[in-house]
Amino acid sequence: MPLAAWPVVVALLLGPPDAEGWRSHVATLSAAGDAESALRLASGLGRRGETAEARRFATIARERGAHPIRVTLALAEAALRAEDWPVAASGYYEVLQAAPEHGYAAVQLWHCLRMAPPLALSRELDVARLRGVLDARGFYVPEVFQYPPDLQAAAMRVSEGFAAITRNEYDAARRAFRAAIDAAPSFHDAWRGLGMVEAARGNAAGTRSAYLVFLALEPPESIETRRIRRVLSDDARRRGLAAEKEKASARRSPDSSPRSSP
């Protein structure tokens, strides 16, 4: 690799350590001239709340041939940081329309619904449609996001849910965990319990969505978080293999579409 390329590689791998490092990071990536560097800058600027610059570099990345989904995600992330809820939600929705299995976009759309003030989305977007997109992917979306959260009520419901699991009463456990989420949408163990219930019920989409939200809420590292990461990794591998098998089968199948008469 040419020596001139090493600063870009280091910047991409390590990122900015401090304010001075950030300025150096921006200068290095700005001079790189490739789509990946522009995308990294767009994401970093968005996280720092520099929305206008994030949009500018996202546009540059698009012009340099970056994948449209990654550009849309960078723009949505910048909007989320700026609390521009309609733009953020629209971006994640657009990604899900193009890539229905994009778990990160689904979780971020769920976060938009959780964090946005009630009227911030409904003035510009069809919130029922956003909820429907998540519901179709197995996500539980409370009718109303409780604020401030009732942590005491959530803890009580979670205890009821885990007790119901020990009795194999999965319907009761599911109701308890959903009630806990209604009381406190960010309560880690409610999502963990809901994922366990959906797994016991054989609901793969529900298990996946509950565990994705659980990890997105950044729970403390534990044996359970590692187990859940393995569950999601195994699920992604199975779905990937199934998709490849389906594509291979489609390639082998003869074209059965009717031919038009000359």
Distance between the termini: 57 Å
Helix content: over 70%
Could you state the order of secondary-structure elements as H and E?
A: HHHHHHHHHHHHHH
Mean pLDDT: 86
User: CATH superfamily assignment of the domain at 147-234?
Assistant: Tetratricopeptide repeat domain
In the predicted model, the low-confidence regions spanning at least 5 consecutive residues are: 1-16
Kindly provide the name of the CATH class of the domain at 147-234.
Mainly Alpha
* CATH topology-level fold name of the domain at 147-234: Serine Threonine Protein Phosphatase 5, Tetratricopeptide repeat
Give the tags.
disordered N terminus; mainly alpha; 262 residues; Serine Threonine Protein Phosphatase 5, Tetratricopeptide repeat
Outline of this structure?
The protein contains 14 helices and no strands.
Structure in words:
With 262 residues, the protein is an all-alpha fold. Helix content is 72%, strand content 0%. The protein is built from 14 helices and no strands. The chain has helices at residues 6-14, 19-30, 35-47, 51-63, 68-81, 85-98, 103-115, 118-122, 127-136, 151-166, 170-183, 188-200, 204-216, 223-252. The longest helix is centred in the C-terminal third of the chain and has 30 residues, at 223-252.
List the helices and strands and how they pair.
Layout: H1 6-14, H2 19-30, H3 35-47, H4 51-63, H5 68-81, H6 85-98, H7 103-115, H8 118-122, H9 127-136, H10 151-166, H11 170-183, H12 188-200, H13 204-216, H14 223-252
